[in-house]
Amino acid sequence: MVGLLIQWFVQVIHSLYFNKLRLISESARSEGGRLWVPRAREDKRLSTDIPDKERWYFLEEKYPKYGNLVPSDIATREIFQVCLDGYGIDGKMQVYLDLTHKSTAELNSRLKGTLDIYKNFMREDPHKVPMRVFPGMHYTMGGLWVDINQKTSLDGIYAAGECDFSIHGANRLGANSLVSCVYGGIVSGISAFNYVKGLEKTLDISEPIFEIKRSQEEEFNNSLSKQTGVENAQLLHQEMGRYMTENVTVIRGNKQLQDTDNKLQELQERFNQIDLNESNFWASQSLPHARSLRNMLELARVITLCALARNESRGAHYKPEFPERDDENWLKTTIATYTLNGPEVSYQETDTSLVTPKPRKYN
Q1: Higher pLDDT residue, 250 or 202?
Q2: Number of separate helices (H) and strands (E) present in the chain
Q3: 328-346: pLDDT as tens digits
Q4: The domain 13-137: what is its CATH number?
């Protein structure tokens, strides 16, 4: 089987439009955007009515050296905690990202596209009022295992781009997607060519392996489309998403992780009772969605179980019970392999011969 590495390190970006799930560029912070909430819990005043002394610029107070320029995972964690502590705008999970102190000319020259899109979606002018934001899912650090030639654990299959793990660590760094695409593409293309050129013979396609696999998938589709039961695939999807978002994103407690894995196994059992209740599958997405849901549940267990096992905090993975990085026990890469009995987790030592790890501190 193909190994899946460190996919459970999940980047939760700090600034999505509140309730719209659209990303605000990180350049908004780098161009002077300030994150804040009212100092008083449940302050119902409009943002423009709250004087500066009654605003809590929490990143600037907690990280005076870096302020609003702390890395994304730090900003995300602080926003999440501020809201959990009851300081979110109107008591909700949202904070202000404020650019109103910048001149219109400067904003239009640097951030016009970003701010115009926000204005169109939110019907609020970010030149005049602070934007309302909250963290949301953005990226997973990890993917298929590859060697130095971009070869996976299966002969003849090469991976490049965001689907392979080789560029990623426990956190997402700027431009790593571009590096994955350019470097991985160059290396994998040459490697695949050399692999094919070195073959003594090609596959005998008279063997019915393709037909056998197609027959298996058609059989699964037919079985799923005719299946009757009491469960709704859309509702199972929503239930999975709620548990994963609440327990396996920014803050990961071991009890919550174990509860989530128990729920995921329950959902896998209930999947066998879904009823697509559909007659015109050619015009519906219900069957592809159900097939995807089965895979989502498998991957959700990978993310949850790998996070549960790692008792430390590293990069995008934060456990309140274990707030420090533990290089002695956990300076290693997680590998998850598919089995019929659930994910099989193993580890690979990390080569630090070229770069010596050191603590990442911003206080």
Answers
A1: 250
A2: 10, 7
A3: 999 998 888 888 899 999 9
A4: 3.90.700.10
Distance, CA of 222 to CA of 227 (rounded, Å): 8
Domain with CATH 1.20.58.100 in the chain: 209-349
At residue 201, the pLDDT reads 72
Please state which CATH class domain 209-349 belongs to.
mainly alpha
Question: What are the tens digits of pLDDT across the range 25-47?
Answer: 888 999 999 999 999 998 999 99
pTM of structure: 0.83
Please tell me the number of Cα atoms within 13 Å of 277 on its side-chain side. Answer: 9
Helix locations, 31-68, DSSP H: 58-62
Tokens 């267990």 correspond to 301
- Helices 233-247 & 286-309, crossing angle to 10 degrees? 20
Residues of the chain with CATH 3.90.700.10: 13-137
Most confident of the ranges 81-95, 157-171, 260-274: 260-274
- Does residue 84 have a pLDDT over 80? yes
The sign one gets for the Cα dihedral 243, 246, 250, 251 is: negative
